[in-house]
Structure prediction request, 221 residues.
Amino acid sequence: MENSIKITAASRTTTGKGPAREMRRNANIPAVIYGKGRDPQSLAIGRSDFDKVVSTLHGEVKSTVFDLIVDGKSTTALIREVQKHPTKLTVQHVDFYEVHAGEKIHLDVPLKLIGIPEGVRNSGGVLDHVLREVEVEVLPRHVPDHLELDVTHLELNDSMHVSDIKAENVEILTDMGATICSVIPPRVETEEEVGEEIDAADAEPEIIGRPKDDEAEESEG
Prediction:
């Protein structure tokens, strides 16, 4: 594939939690590749190389077609899942899906809103971005990094829907009536809400627990 993003991997025969932990200690990430007509294959990918590639994609990892090079052999693949550590947020495991040139694939593609709506610029409205990606069916060579919508014409209370997306060589599977974004009026606080905020600000903070000096005096008594 021309201009494709490359990830280098090595096949591995060891599986299980113990070998996976050892791999991570050695700056590698356990991975697997699967697809139609092939058995799942366990892989190892270098953490620094993978992180460097992902950092250039700006969150569009799952809509990117990769040139996955396994033991020197090139395979076209998508990332289906990236598992991360719950607290450290480091990548723990990656699932790749092999794709073929003539095979249409399903994936979620990010939506990008272009421009500042008239209702925001001139009327103080707020752009509410509700739907941030859509599911599509597409051939690998036509996979878009993202789909764009021009929102500059939107006035207050206007909205855009999935049916407003213009995309070539892509079949959109998400409900056409789903709202992507809308321009909503600015929220105006009522006098009652303002009064409640003032009362809350003036209220004395509740003291949780007892000062240590008091506890000491009671224990001594």
User: Anything to note?
Assistant: The CA atoms of residues 20 and 174 lie 37 Å apart. The two ends are 83 Å apart (CA to CA).
